[in-house]
Amino acid sequence: MSDQHEPPAQAPVEDSLKQVKDLLARHRLVEGLVHKQNMPRHELVESLVHKQNLVELQKKLDKLHPADVAYILEALPLEDRLLVWNLVKADRDGDILLEVSDAVRESLIATMNIHELVAAAASLDTDEIADLAPDLPKDVVQELLKSLDHAKRVQVESSLSYDEDSVGGLMDYDFVTIRADVTLEVALRYLRRLGELPSHSDKLFVVDRNERLIGTLPLKRMLVHDPDVHVAAIMSDDPVKFSPSDPATDAAQAFERYDLVTAPVVDARGNLVGRLTVDVVLDFIRAEAEEDMLQAAGLREEEDLFSTVWKAAKNRWLWLAINLCTALFASRVVGAFEGSIEKLAALAALMPIVAGMGGNSGSQTLTLMVRGLALGLISKENTKRLLIKELGIAVLNGVMWGSMMGLITWLLYDNIGLALVMAAAMLMSLIVAALAGFVAPIIIVRLGHDPAFGAHVLLTFITDSMGFLIFLGLATLVLL
After folding, report:
1. Local structure of 17: helix, strand or coil
2. What is the pTM of this model?
3. Helix 380-413 with 416-446: angle, nearest 10 deg
4. pLDDT tens digit string along 50-87?
5. How many CB atoms lie within 10 A of CB 98?
6. Binning pLDDT at 50, 70 and 90, where does residue 313 land?
7. How far apart are CA 332 and CA 476, in angstroms?
8. Cα torsion 249, 104, 162, 144: sign
9. Which residues contact 364 (CB under 8 A, 6 or more apart)?
10. Residues spanned by CATH 1.25.60.10 within the chain?
11. CB atoms within 10 A of CB 175
12. Long-range contacts, 12-19 (Cβ 8 Å, 24+)
């Protein structure tokens, strides 16, 4: 995100949100009272009161970091959100649009004309323009590109050519290069002439005369070595580097593994084309985590917390429809054993326990699998070993908890046959749940989706249906 604004020392953002809400409530209260008064030149007085009440709110917003303003906008209903947005200074629009969620950004962009949008985007850095451009109308993007100088336009077009989940879609072009054959004293003089370094600069990129990356020079090494030493003598000649086409998830894992602050991005010929910074990587990780959480619940990323009932309902229809279909299938499994349940009413009380235990056990396996797939820890070589491990855990848990539930069933119903059925069904259900939790995310990945996408829905469908089928089927065969 933009680094033009340093976060000031201030109260927590929740306090700022409360103050904004209080100011909005006071504004509406005073406006309502003035509106009810019968006085000369009523419209003029009402207009003056309206402006006066918003001055304090505008001053409050001016003191806040763009990220804090974005947080406040996301926490306000649409009417209040638009009122606050209109009070934000135009030169901060771009920074705030970058910080808000996709759904809120859509609502704000809808209120802006083409000139306001072009001005807001043009004030941003190249990589930030590329982040914002996909959410802008096409005519705005065209006007925006026309307004940029040639070098910046080429960089923006280059960034837009990469997938948003690739390194190329996240990299920026603001970096400092240096030659290997100069001394540290020369390098330091060069930095002093620049006046300031790009944000999150912890190293310089060492290139040859053809702009080919040959190493990196950490700034801390510059400060502790003799100024007469050449860059080549102390640079790192084997840095962690990325290609623009590399998946952003791989880069995020590398940043975490090696505690990186910045890393170079090179093309197929080894030429330096950009850099990746830790703030952008953290934003990507947060966005991915939020998307996974929403997808696991069957929600879309673009849902606004304060969207209309109709829009929010439409957003949730798909997964509710899928859940309804799976629930109907599970009910038909139970319906096939209505006769057995009528003869032995205890089956109706016990079957949810089998399905519930299967669901919980499967969720544990599923969570580990989704995490392993997301981190790239699961491969063809270790899949079989992991499957055997999860099945072993399921058997152990099935024997232990199945035996316990069998004993409880015998004590409750004084029916040894029903107790044995309960124990066996519990064991078999946990084995099926482990298989389902292991296989479901793999199937989803093979279909080209994120492993969290619909995995819980699929798991619930399997564990409920198979849990009912196993328990009622065994009961019908053994007891009736």
Report:
1. helix
2. 0.73
3. 150
4. 566 678 888 889 999 999 999 999 999 989 999 999 99
5. 23
6. confident
7. 16
8. negative
9. 437
10. 13-170
11. 20
12. 13/68, 13/71, 13/72, 16/60, 16/64, 16/68, 16/72, 17/71, 17/72, 17/75, 19/60
Please report the pLDDT score of residue 362 as a whole number.
Answer: 92
User: CATH 3.10.580.10 in the chain, residues?
Assistant: 177-249+262-277
Q: Which CATH superfamily is domain 13-170 in?
A: MgtE N-terminal domain-like (1.25.60.10)
Secondary structure element (H or E) that encloses residue 177, with its range: strand 177-178
Q: Parallel, antiparallel, or unpaired: how do β-strands 177-178 and 203-207 relate?
A: parallel
How deeply is 219 buried, as exposed, middle or buried, from its count of CB atoms within 10 A (0-12, 13-18, 19+)? middle
Distance CA 60, CA 69 (A): 10
Q: What does the CA dihedral 151, 157, 161, 162 come to, rounded to 10 degrees?
A: 60
pLDDT tens digits, 333-392: 888 888 888 888 889 999 999 999 999 999 999 989 988 887 778 888 889 999 999 999
- The token pair at 382 is 């270790």
CA atoms of 99 and 66, how far apart (whole Å): 7
Nearest to 320 by CA among 328, 330, 308: 328
Q: How far is CA 348 from the centre of its chain?
A: 41
Checking if the pLDDT of 33 tops 90, the result is no
Which one of 3.30.870.10, 3.40.50.300, 3.10.580.10, 1.10.10.60 gives the CATH number of domain 177-249+262-277?
A: 3.10.580.10
- Find all residues with CB under 8 Å of 116, minimum gap 6, and list them: 90, 93
* Length of the chain as a residue count: 480
| 180-219: pLDDT as tens digits | 999 999 999 999 999 899 999 999 999 999 999 999 999 9
pLDDT score of 9? 45
Q: Which CATH class is domain 309-479?
A: mainly alpha
DSSP states along 202-216: -EEEEE-TT-BEEEE
pLDDT of 269-285, one tens digit each?
A: 999 999 999 999 999 98
**Alpha carbons 464 and 361: distance in angstroms, whole number:** 12
pLDDT at 302: 61
Residues 6+ apart with CB under 8 A from 465: 326, 329, 330, 333
Tell me the DSSP string of 47-91.
Answer: HHHHHHHHHHHHHHHHTS-HHHHHHHHHTS-HHHHHHHHHHS-GG
pLDDT-above-90 percentage for the chain: 54
Q: In one letter, which amino acid is 371? A: R
Backbone angles phi, psi at 182, to 5 degrees: -100, 160
Q: What is the chain's mean pLDDT, rounded?
A: 87
